[in-house]
Amino acid sequence: MAPQPKPADDARPALADKALLTTGADYWGTHEVPALGVRRLRLSDGPHGLRVQDDDNPDHLGLGRSLPATCFPPAVTLASTWDPDLILSVGEALGREARFRGVDVVLGPGIEIKRSPLCGRNFEYYSEDPLLTGRLAAAMVRGIQSQGVAACLKHFACNTQETDRLRVSADVDERPLREIYLLAFELTIRDGHPWALMSAYNRINDVPASQNPWLLTRVLRDEWGFDGVVVSDWGAVSDPVAALEAGVDLRMPGQPQDTRVRDALADGSLDEKVLDRVAERLALLARRTQASARPAEVDVEAHHQVTRRAAAQGAVLLHNDANLLPLDPGTVGSVAVIGELARTPRYQGAGSSAVNPTRVVPALDALRGRLAGVASVGFAPGYTVTAEEGNDDLVAEAVRLAGTSDLAILFLGLPPAYEAEGRDRTTIDLPDAQIDLIRAVASANPRTVVALSNGSAVTTATWRDEVGAIVEFWLTGQAHGDSVADVLLGEVNPSGKLPETVPLRLEDTSSYLDFPGESGHVRHGEGIFVGYRWFDARRLEVDYPFGHGLSYTSFGYSDLDIAVHEADDLEALTVSVTLTNTGPRAGAEVVQVYVGDRSGVLLMPQRELRGFAKVRLEPGASQQVGIAIRRDDLEHYHPEVGWVFTGGPMEVSVGSSSRDIRLHGTVEVPGHPVEIPLTIWSPLGDWLGHPVAGPALRALIDARGGITGRLGDLLSSEVSANSALGSPIASVTQFPGFPVSIEEAEDVLNRL
Ligand code: BGC
In what order do the strands lie in the sheet with 105-107? Predict the structure, then answer.
């Protein structure tokens, strides 16, 4: 039936108001419609600090200066803590600042899966693993929302590259889409209950993510039960009516002058109910975000200390020959601090996430302050941050200083332009000028420590053996020098673990030949084999594996016990080990549990992270650590039937990284067998083995004298029987000698 035209909206003011709610009033706020329970809601970037801009000079790329706010560590560093409690405390502080500034929605956390180390925004994302991402991002969401401020997960979904980000189609099969890319969102929603989510710019299998009803309604709301507001990424919607119908509630930035929604209402092509839904969701968001009072002030120093603590916990000790670290201030004598980044730190990435910090502490200042009176600290810049080419004078000065000092600390990292919103990297190496400097300094002083500042994996393979120790500090947030000094001087014992694999070579990565795609498409041909799942399946050496991170102490693992629960229990397994601090200092270890599903039902990764716990122990102390593994966290997505856990043999590995497995065992776990629906394209063998269709088909065959001719010969030969049994019934019925027609087979199906 043709849609019935509705009266013009000036005759129905409530309708015009509802239409207004579907887009912002301006760059950062919604319209206010008290009659519908919606006040003006203010949104702000995110994700690791606030970027509240002057209303007269707004932008979405972080170009315009914003009000001072604490620059907390970006997601890459938070993820390296593997510590949900600590991330919760960062979320609380961020939420408090948002409340103070009158912000209702923080645009974050960003939870894209790191498909390639080249993605220019990897620093804003957590991990290459969906379970780790989901657990940590849920803690961030809970922290922010505990202050009466909405978290807004972004970017839904598959926004895993910056090249062509406004239109590229991520071409992904349903299994990897569900098991890897969407799972991070599903788990964060399940465990964190965010009140908002941002739809992405890119297309997924050719459908724009912001106009995709399957993604935004069927999966997000009907399957996962998300009840919050869907906000479009800034400028992601080209067809506002299609976006509304697909499930976007709020199109940003505001386009109140755009009449397309009102026109569609007026001519009846858009149902008013869609707008009622938007109004209800925005009203719910308004109620949810007014629960807490606006604080009169923010304790800026306390938040700086939150940043300091989080960044120190996120530092990953990659390598520490002969215990060069920690430095003992009492005995170190003279220290050469080398590298422009020690004086001009890089502590956050560029783009819409860039925060105007309340203060920044360079490492050089912090080290000079801490070592004053006990050791001498010399400085040489060594290189210019933005220059690719080395400078002989700067290198010579650095070498002189290193050669006359007891120890050298080289501050290295990526120039800001290497990893920024809107552009991807092309290499995982440090700039040549810095690599040359490492060689020169390390040969002048073998007691050289490298402190890295970068937002995504850089390989150390070509120079790692020349230096004594390497600490990956990632991007620390504003307390850079404080956190760096805490770790280097041993006030904090590092316990960070890599949330992404550091490859030896870019060519080894799973997306190497498919990143960033061509002609507007990027094929995710590696399927579920992303990150460590790929390196393990291909048995590739890596620079540092997923989950790796050393400590100034050491840990022993013993007494593995795996309790297997009934098929209908929410938890499938409880894995227990005894962890002992076997070294000289107090420290924390992340006990990691990986499961390799050996059921053979689908192609499976070697092992997958299924649980973890961060445990702090005094020297000599032991603790029994129990990690429960949820049954749904063991499921895989079967392309024909959906999520399944069939049970079967499961190889459980417990370790200090994905490649430092200390204990393992195999257990038989009960599950629910999968029933693949029979179709005309199912193989003959499946038909014959089916409990109902099998006997029916056999009866027909037998009544007609059996399978004869060439097909009969094939079936009776040991060599060729498998190929005949593996042929679909739609084809088998076309061979002479098979006595059942395709119509009769369809008949059997219809009677199932
Ligand atoms: C980014 C989002 C950001 C928004 C608003 C977009 O370009 O992709 O992450 O929240 O701008 O600044």
Answer: 43-45, 105-107, 150-156, 196-199, 229-232
The average confidence (pLDDT) of the chain is 95
For 429-489, the three-class secondary structure string (H helix, E strand, C coil) is CCCHHHHHHHHHHHHHCCCEEEEEECCCCCCCCCCHHHCCEEEECCCCCCCHHHHHHHHHC
- Interval 536-560: pLDDT, tens: 999 999 999 999 999 999 999 999 9
Amino acid at 341: L
pLDDT the model gives residue 13 = 52
> Cα(138)–Cα(59) distance, rounded to whole angstroms?
28
* Residue 487: burial class (beta carbons within 10 Å; 0-12, 13-18, 19+): buried
How far is residue 23's CA from residue 65's CA, in Å, rounded to a whole number? 25
Residue numbers in the chain where pLDDT is lower than 70? 1-13, 291-292
User: What is the rounded CA–CA span in Å between residue 181 and residue 128?
Assistant: 9
**Contact partners, residue 71, CB within 8 Å, separation at least 6:** 48, 49, 307, 347, 348, 355, 356, 357, 358, 360, 477, 478
Tokens 């940043």 -> residue: 307
Tokens representing 289? 């975000």
CA 109–ligand 1 middle distance (angstroms): 12
Q: What angle do CA 159, 165, 168 make, to 5 degrees?
A: 90
pLDDT of 5 reads 44
Q: Which two tokens stand for residue 494?
A: 């590092």
473 C-beta closer than 6 A to ligand 1: no
d(CA 710, CA 485): 78
Longest dimension (CA), the chain: 100
In sequence order, which residues have a C-beta less than 8 Å from that of residue 73 and are 6 or more positions away?
A: 48, 90, 307, 310, 311, 314, 474, 475, 476, 477
pLDDT of residue 560: 98
- 233 CA to centre of ligand 1 in angstroms: 6
Measure the CA–CA gap between 749 and 155, rounded to whole angstroms. Answer: 43
User: In testing the pocket of ligand 1, which one of 26, 42, 45, 153 has its CB within 8 Å of the most ligand atoms?
Assistant: 45
Which has the closest alpha carbon to 157: 141, 126, 180? 180
CB atoms within 10 A of CB 567: 13
593, 658 in Cβ contact below 8 A? no
What integer pLDDT is reported at residue 377 of this predicted model?
A: 97
Ligand 1 pocket test: which of 52, 57, 66, 107 has the largest number of ligand atoms within 8 Å of its C-beta?
A: 107
Which domains does the chain carry? 34-55+64-248+274-288 (3.20.20.300), 309-544 (3.40.50.1700), 555-670 (2.60.40.10), 684-750 (no CATH)
Separation of first and last alpha carbons in the chain: 36
> Known catalytic residue: 83?
no
Cα 484 from Cα 319, distance rounded (Å): 16
Task: Give me the pLDDT at residue 480, please.
Answer: 98
Task: Name the catalytic one among 45, 233, 597, 633.
Answer: 233
Q: Could you give the CA distance from residue 348 to residue 433 in angstroms, rounded to a whole number?
A: 22
**Nearest of 229, 251, 228 to residue 239 by alpha carbon:** 251
Q: Is 233 in the pocket of ligand 1 (CB under 6 A)?
A: yes
Atom of ligand 1 nearest to the CA of 45: 10
What pLDDT does residue 228 have? 98
State if residue 445 touches ligand 1 by the CB under 6 angstroms criterion: no
pLDDT, tens digit, 9 for 90 and up, residues 52-73: 987 777 787 777 789 999 999 9
Q: Which residue has the tokens 């569900």?
A: 178
**Which residue among 60, 156, 168 is best mutated to probe the pocket of ligand 1, counting the most ligand atoms within 8 A of its Cβ?**
60
pTM of the model: 0.95
Question: Judging by beta carbons within 10 Å of its beta carbon (0-12, 13-18, 19+), is residue 663 exposed, middle or buried?
Answer: middle
Please state the three-class secondary structure of 240-308 as a single string: HHHHHHHCCCEECCCCCCCCHHHHHHHCCCCCHHHHHHHHHHHHHHHHHCCCCCCCCCCCHHHHHHHHH
Q: Is the CB of residue 370 below 6 angstroms from any atom belonging to ligand 1?
A: no
Ligand 1 within 6 A of CB of 352: yes
